[in-house]
């Protein structure tokens, strides 16, 4: 188990390091007319990938030295796996399908309406049952989209 996690974490760190050089070639906010330049978002993601990948490598290395993974692996192998298809076991496929429909819907009804519908469906898929929670999530997501795209990036919706 440690080998797989180590390979995955190493691949994440390697991807971030390889992507760093092209990302630094994007124009900064000082070189464009918007408040936030095109370099900010990819660079933020790369920093997060480096940090989280490095943390995963460190935690895996520490657990391997302490020998705590053997107990976890035994627990995993002893629990029987359910072969029944339930909504919870296929939720990731529903989210992928929703993302594909969202991408198509942007061209049909526009970004803002498609994003509100996407937020509604994803909030329900991820388990929100209170309509108050769903409504608050949709309002906050809409305000964030307006704030980021219209105010920070200067892109009209």
UniProtKB/TrEMBL annotation:
Official protein name in the record? Tripartite tricarboxylate transporter TctB family protein
Q: Which residues form the DUF1468 domain?
A: 9-157
Q: Which UniProt keywords apply?
A: Membrane, Transmembrane, Transmembrane helix
**Which spans are transmembrane here?**
40-59, 93-126, 132-155
Classify the source by domain of life. Bacteria
What is the native source organism of this protein? Answer: Halomonas casei
For this protein, the record's InterPro entries field holds: DUF1468
């Amino acid at each position: 188990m440690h080998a797989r996690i180590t390979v995955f974490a190493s691949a994440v760190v390697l991807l971030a390091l390889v992507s760093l050089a092209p990302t630094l070639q994007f124009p900064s906010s000082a070189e464009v007319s918007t408040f936030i330049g095109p370099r900010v978002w990819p660079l933020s993601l790369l920093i997060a990938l480096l940090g989280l990948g490095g943390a995963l490598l460190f935690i895996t290395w520490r657990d391997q030295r302490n020998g705590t993974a053997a107990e976890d692996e035994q627990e995993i192998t002893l629990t029987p796996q359910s072969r029944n298809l339930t909504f919870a076991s296929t939720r990731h496929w529903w989210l992928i399908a929703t993302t594909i429909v969202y991408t198509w819907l942007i061209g049909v009804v526009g970004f803002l309406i498609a994003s509100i519908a996407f937020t509604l469906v994803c909030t329900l898929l991820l388990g929100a049952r209170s309509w108050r929670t769903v409504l608050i999530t949709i309002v906050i997501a809409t305000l964030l989209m307006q704030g980021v795209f219209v105010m920070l990036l200067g892109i009209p919706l």
